[in-house]
Amino acid sequence: MPNVDARKSSLTKFQPRSRKVKILATTGPASHDIDTLRRLFQAGADAFRVNMSHGEHEVHARTIANIRALEKEFRRPIAILADLQGPKLRVGRFADGRATIPHGGTFTFDRDSEPGDATRVELPHPEIFHVVEEGQRLLVNDGKIRLRVTEVTNGKIVCKAEVGGVISDRKGVNVPDAEIPIPALTDKDRRDLAFAMEQGVDWIGLSFVQRPDDLAEARKLMVAPNGERKGALCAKIEKPQAVRRLKEIIDLADGIMVARGDLGVELEPQEVPPLQKKIVNAARVIGKPVIVATQMLESMIESPAPTRAEVSDVANAVYDGADAVMLSAETAAGSWPEEAVLMMDSIARQVEKDEDYKQRVRMLDTPPDATLADALSHACMTIADTVNINAIAVFTSSGSSARRVARERPAVPLMVLTPSMAVARRVCLLWGGHPVATKDIGSFEEMIAKGKRMALRHGFAGEGARIAMLAGVPFGQAGATNLVHIVTLKGDELENYDG
Predict the structure, then answer these.
(1) CATH number (domain holding residue 111)
(2) Residues tagged active-site
(3) pLDDT, tens digit, 9 for 90 and up, residues 423-432
(4) DSSP for 177-188, written as a single string
(5) Number of domains into which the chain is organized
(6) Residue 62 CA, distance from chain mean position
């Protein structure tokens, strides 16, 4: 475990990140005050997740305001992801509050609102009755109870308990083998999304995605009255149905989250690791940020140190080239939130120091598209491998050029200069991206001067340093990337630098 006291003393003055993979920390009762958020940011958190499944809007608004205050304090963009709850399928109530389904026993879901017992209970979701078929599975209470459908009749689903157990009021139901014809957004989600847009959050996490169409309604609600898009949409892959249409969903989303919690309920445990790699690779090929989430350092909810298996889990996600790794209850409600971030930061740094890391993170073939922007992005990576440069500076108005360069996983830091604070914040979840919100440039000479100045200010360059600059002419026009230029910082430029 890293030395927490030593790390704290070294973080009294914030330093630019050298780590390329990003850390997304969930806020909650243990971490929504500004002092704790400050410590988490200094420990290594690059972005914060606000879980809309818990807490009131008033509390979330204070949390968001605290994060924005930290932005001003550290003069660095910080991303906020509002994670929507999505539909929750639940059973009804029981006469005694609970019942025990015996192993091998028969259990029935029906439309009767009478309290249930050990043989039946209400399932108040008519959509399920129309799509479930004999032989399919129904999972209750996060998969602890496993039922196999033996008969579907008018208003009844009869099951055999392959794994029985205690079932109680309002426990959740998963239907892994059927696509349920319900939208990904509930009324609560619409209210939460409207709140998140009012608060100016940067990413929306969309739960219960089954099909590409599920992203359409959220997109409509993320448009300002003037037609401008607000925020970025992260599709959470937590349903087997989403995996079957993965490429279509990635194409429509701005980012992807591998939500391993629900995937681990609806799939066999051994199916999740290769599926995680498949999702990460698919997002990387297209050039969209991908987050690996859930149960990464779960033992640190109660313990100041993780298990070796958890350390390996985080390390493997970093080796796979994920853009970000996420902490959930570890920072939201755990006893050791700061230590959890420090540990994740330490694991990631150790992996990225591995001499084989660059080769492993590039094992995935990401051939450039037949566009000038992709060709130049690929050239930046090749230049960094061929000659000694210290950083790549990308001038972008939309963030697209930064994503294309990050897709190549270059060996040097990626400084993203943009006039849009919204774009700068979104870059906080991009592999290797160091966002800098700065005024737009209007000429080649201004590009050179600003690129040098920002590289010095943000600690990426000193005397003799070389920087590859990627931009588009005419400047300030989205989609016009057509220029790579290499500059060298000279001694007199350092003498005249005013910070």
Answers:
(1) 2.40.33.10
(2) 49, 90, 236, 294
(3) 999 999 999 9
(4) TS-----S--HH
(5) 3
(6) 22
